[in-house]
């Protein structure tokens, strides 16, 4: 029996193994927007930080963030053929859908590359909410709940970053986190989500208990 009637997924770092790609375009993006380059040895330290702390650490002016987000969405579209789903994603999505669970993706990425990476599994998703701003997910969650007529207590939001946990909590939604995305497992654990998943097999078994 499904534990929740609605599962809201983040995409990059949650369903898609896009963190290596993200690291590969960091300095290209830094050069494009006249920011300091990121040294390879900084990456692991950044995984311990929240998004606001990362931006402060890298010295990124907030007024540049919308332009940076747009630029990175374009790069993500170009790289969609090179980004893969994590093992077990398609099987987990199919099992959830077969159990009658509504599936939604809320992402800062664009819908076209998300669908391309998902492949046939894209048709299992009931609703795509794309182009969310860095700290705009809570409002997107609220809109999804309203549109689908689902109470917050019947939903779980699953992401890979501290801000995903915060957004879920802001809307009274259960917060789930995967341990293999942007933020490290230790950083996520310190943020105390309701659930932590080490694999999609683990996620499927927990949500369909």
UniProtKB/TrEMBL annotation:
InterPro entries given in the database record: HAD-like_hydrolase_sf (IPR050155), HAD-like_sf (IPR036412), HAD_2 (IPR041492), HAD_sf (IPR023214), PGP-like_dom2 (IPR023198)
Keyword annotations: Hydrolase
Protein's recorded name: HAD family hydrolase
GO cellular component: cytosol
Keyword Disulfide bond: no
GO biological process terms on file: DNA repair
GO MF annotation list: phosphoglycolate phosphatase activity
Pfam families listed in its UniProt record: HAD_2 (PF13419)
């Amino acid at each position: 029996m499904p534990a929740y009637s609605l599962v809201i997924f983040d995409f990059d770092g949650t369903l898609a193994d896009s963190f290596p790609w993200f690291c590969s375009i960091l300095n290209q993006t830094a050069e494009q927007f006249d920011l300091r380059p990121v040294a390879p040895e900084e990456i692991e330290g950044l995984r311990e930080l929240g998004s606001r702390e990362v931006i402060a650490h890298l010295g990124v002016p907030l007024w540049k963030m919308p332009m940076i987000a747009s630029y990175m969405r374009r790069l993500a579209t170009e790289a969609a053929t090179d980004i893969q789903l994590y093992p077990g994603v398609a099987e987990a999505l199919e099992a959830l859908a077969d159990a009658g669970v509504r599936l939604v993706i809320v992402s800062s990425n664009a819908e076209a590359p998300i669908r391309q990476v998902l492949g046939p599994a894209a048709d299992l998703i009931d609703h795509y909410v794309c182009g969310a701003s860095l700290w705009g997910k809570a409002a997107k969650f609220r809109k999804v709940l309203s549109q689908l007529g689902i109470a917050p207590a019947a939903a779980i939001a699953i992401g890979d970053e501290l801000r995903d946990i915060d957004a879920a909590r802001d809307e009274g939604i259960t917060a789930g986190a995967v341990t293999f995305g942007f933020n490290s497992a230790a950083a996520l654990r310190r943020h105390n989500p309701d659930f932590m998943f080490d694999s999609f097999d683990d996620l499927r078994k927990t949500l369909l208990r």
